[in-house]
Amino acid sequence: MSGFDKVVTDYASALQGLEDGMTIIAGGFGLCGIPEGLISHIKTMAVKELTIVSNNCGVDGFGLGILLEDKQIRKMVSSYVGENALFERQLLNGELEVELTPQGTLAEKMRAGGAGIPAFYTATGYGTPVGEGKEVKVFNDRPYILEESITGDFAIVKAWKADRFGNCVYRHTAQNFNPMAATAGKITVVEAEEIVEPGEIAPSEIHTPGIYVNRVIKGTFEKRIERRVVAKENV
Fold this sequence. Notes:
The chain is α/β, with parallel strands linked by helices and 235 residues long. Helix content is 17%, strand content 27%. GO terms for molecular function: succinyl-CoA:3-oxo-acid CoA-transferase activity.
């Protein structure tokens, strides 16, 4: 079994090989389902000039937002950037390159990259700045733009459960971008709440097969709520 055991016990081993200028694909949506410990260790590593592909860039002081503090990110490829004041400042000051991508297109870019599909056509973005300069083709009298897929040097994802072979289960909405991201990295690292023995996850329950995963580490998660909204008590 040892030859198939992908569990590592420290973050340095989990992110071994990560260097300046690499592209990281990160799972999560807002602060839901983000690999908190892996992100924190990337900050500790002080790698620079990173391209980060993720739905968003965390918030000020948490999630991917902490990588902005020392300007470790050169470019963000994302679909939503509205909860991070530091992100906004760096963008407006020309310190951060941002490639805004429609959310569904971003998900499909990851999925296609993981499936070995170099590009695909989508109607989303046609006739907008998103579609400028991109090839257009008409199918059934409707124009579509050509979008290239995405792969990364590393993919970092968060799982609810993973076994030692790398098979993963995501919990509820924490599935979000994690399954697509997990397939699109040359090296995929899973940070899991719980690591179980092979066979404890039923095959029908597996969201990401271990064939896509290179390393698994057990994490401890704060699971911070991005924005808490409560109903006002009736007076």
